[in-house]
Design a protein that fits this description.
The protein is of the alpha+beta class. Helix content is about 35%, strand content about 30%. The N and C termini lie far apart (about 95 Å).
Length: about 250
Amino acid sequence: MKRNIVIAAVTAAALIGGGTATALATTGDDGPGTTRQSDVRASGGDDADDRAGDDADDRDDSRDDDGGDDRDDAARASSAKVTAAEAVAAALREAPGTAVSAELDDEDGDDDGDRERAVWEVDVLAGDGTWHSVRIDPGTGKVLGSETDDEDDTDEVRAALKGSSVDAAEAAKAAAGRGIVTSVELDEDGHYGDGRAAWEVETLSSGKGEQDWRVGLKSGEVTADRSHHSGSDRSDHSDDSDDSGSDDD
């Protein structure tokens, strides 16, 4: 009976304090000289604290990752001395054809342990249908390398660019007033796949962060790309909503 009272008391203490307690009963019904150990565990103690701590760490890591990506993008863009238009021009000298996209991105370091470095990657469609991926140094404009790619949308790209008068370099220049151009790419499918092709341009600016724009293939008019950011600033032109339609005339 005394052993049961001791265990009950220890159990109550464990439930109140949260954790694990061990009771040793040396007297009672089991007879003299008998020792029995009873483990009493209470839920909601250390395990709950550990889970709460892990959740908080995950939230901190997520915020750090997002903030780190934004800072990396800003640092990469601000350090580039070669603009998107200049990178396109350099790529076309290496691989003549039509530039379909240009993006300022990171290139993995080599096997000697060099760190990642920023690089312009320009995709060019040659007259014979061959695709070239040309890497341009954003600091010097020097060609770092070029390789042939296999793409399956050649016909779609050519159809979208047929009759256009604004190329990738001109689209980048048109959007440069909105911030530092970090990418320009042909969207052959148009808004939500509506078939109205245009250039998609991404810019980065202080105070506004990353923004997306559309540049008309014929008019060169810049409009906010609301398919990505519904709250993006509207174009300075009052008739921007009609821009993509005018290119199809």
